[in-house]
UniProtKB/TrEMBL annotation:
Pfam families: Beta-prop_KIB1-4 (PF03478). Keywords: Membrane, Transmembrane, Transmembrane helix. The lineage of its organism: Eukaryota, Viridiplantae, Streptophyta, Embryophyta, Tracheophyta. It comes from the Eukaryota. This is KIB1-4 beta-propeller domain-containing protein. It comes from Lolium multiflorum (Italian ryegrass).
Length: 420
């Protein structure tokens, strides 16, 4: 007879506690080995996606995962001048809460912040920051210039000594994106421009009239330098001169950078967008926005700037994609209104031509030469970017050169005493 068994009742399903989180099974370490054997073309496509948004730091982290991923991607160290690896959409925020080796960088295209510790800065004199680069000088004479990329960690060395009066510099493609990278140093006291390229042992210097120097300085600190090489730049510049004459404005003074300003002053600000240069004119507290088309050679009123917002200041100007920054309104110009030792942030709507203050209380007070944020922490992105436009840190080099000069003077004095 066949064996018989008792019927077993079906098992009862236990009710899950909704507050209990399920724990995924542990993936064995051997299951991740396949990542290192991804096809090279797929690895390159992933890496290129980081470069497309200029997130070069993520690209460097991606290459550090394994040897096969490094072999499949380009090494920034082999070509430090490659524009793909330049922090072209990054700025270095200069707020006072930073330490000497900790910096806050911001990608103005994506809205991503990067808080980075950079011990290398302690080994050089920091002269200026430009387009995400640090322009440095050797600590030992003759204080040769250096350009440091904080996203790749690589430094370009130059033979040209750093002029003592440099507070503004530029490193990148001058004119078209395909142009070779060059370093341009601006001497505020001498009104000179110094230019050199990474592979050159020489430097070219230009003596500029003060009005021309002020214009170039504004173009560089506003990111509008790429439009200067336009075919119609000379014609657009001639129209700008005609506009100045019609306003009875002083060419030297309209691009002046120092504060304070008189309420009756006329000031010009240059900002670089992808397709044209934006010219913002401030006349007795009223703003007028023009586009300076250096390809067609025209200066004409601007009706809008799409999804962009512009931040202008006497020290620097920049555009940002407003869709990537909550709280920033597109098609607007943000600027600071200075009242003695304090300053308010204002917003000008290009389409409606309306001006409004961001808050009733002043956001800045002047301490020494800087306008310091007095708003409550955490600061808003509008406050940080406005601070970026009206403050620039002093170069660390002149103080050292003054010290060296004093030591040399004392040494010469001692020698003359011995001669006596």
């Amino acid at each position: 007879m066949p064996l018989t068994t008792r019927d077993i009742p079906p098992a009862k399903r236990k009710k899950k506690d909704p507050t209990c989180l399920e724990i995924s099974p542990v993936v064995p370490a051997t299951a991740t080995v396949g990542w290192s054997s991804l096809p090279d073309d797929l690895v390159r496509r992933i890496a290129d996606s980081f470069l497309a948004t200029n997130d070069v730091d993520c690209y460097m982290d991606f290459r550090a995962v394994c040897p096969s991923w490094r072999a499949a991607t380009d090494d920034p160290k082999t070509n430090t001048s490659d524009p793909r690896f330049c922090p072209r959409t990054w700025i270095v925020l200069d707020e006072v809460f930073q330490s000497d080796d900790r910096q806050i960088l911001l990608n103005t295209d994506t809205g991503r912040f990067l808080h980075k510790k950079i011990p290398l800065l302690l080994d050089y004199y920091v002269v200026a920051t430009t387009s995400g680069f640090f322009v440095l000088a050797d600590r030992s004479p003759p204080h040769a210039a250096r350009v440091f990329n904080p996203l790749t960690g690589y430094t370009l060395r130059f033979t040209v000594p750093m002029p003592p009066d440099v507070r503004v510099a530029f490193f990148g493609s001058w004119g078209k994106a395909s142009s070779p990278l060059c370093l341009v140093l601006l001497g505020d006291l001498s009104s000179k421009l110094y230019a050199t390229v990474p592979d050159s042992e020489g430097v070219v210097s230009y003596d500029c009239q003060r009005e021309v120097y002020n214009f170039f300085r504004k173009a560089i600190v506003g990111g509008a330098y790429s439009h200067i090489a336009g075919l119609g730049f000379a014609l657009a510049f001639a129209e700008l001169l005609d506009l100045l004459r019609s306003l009875h404005a002083d060419f030297v003074k309209v691009f002046f950078t120092n504060l304070p300003e008189d309420a009756n002053d006329i000031r010009f600000f240059l900002v670089g967008l992808a397709i044209h240069m934006v010219l913002v004119i401030k006349i007795q507290g009223t703003l007028f926005v023009f586009k300076m088309d250096t390809e067609l050679g025209k200066v004409e009123p601007l009706q809008g700037i799409s999804n962009f917002a512009i931040f202008i200041g006497h020290c620097r100007c920049l555009p940002v994609d407003a869709t990537k920054f909550p709280g920033i309104e597109a098609n607007c110009v943000y600027y600071t209104e200075h009242l003695g030792l304090s300053a308010h942030i204002c917003k000008y709507n290009i389409k409606d031509k309306k001006v409004e203050r961001i808050s009733e209380a002043p956001e800045f007070v002047k301490q020494d030469k800087q306008f310091v944020l007095v708003a409550h922490h955490p600061f808003t992105i509008i406050q940080l970017l406005c601070s970026y436009t009206i403050n620039t840190p002093d170069s660390q080099l002149p103080l050292q050169q003054m010290s060296e000069g004093a030591e040399e003077s004392r040494s010469n004095s001692g020698d003359s005493d011995l001669d006596d």
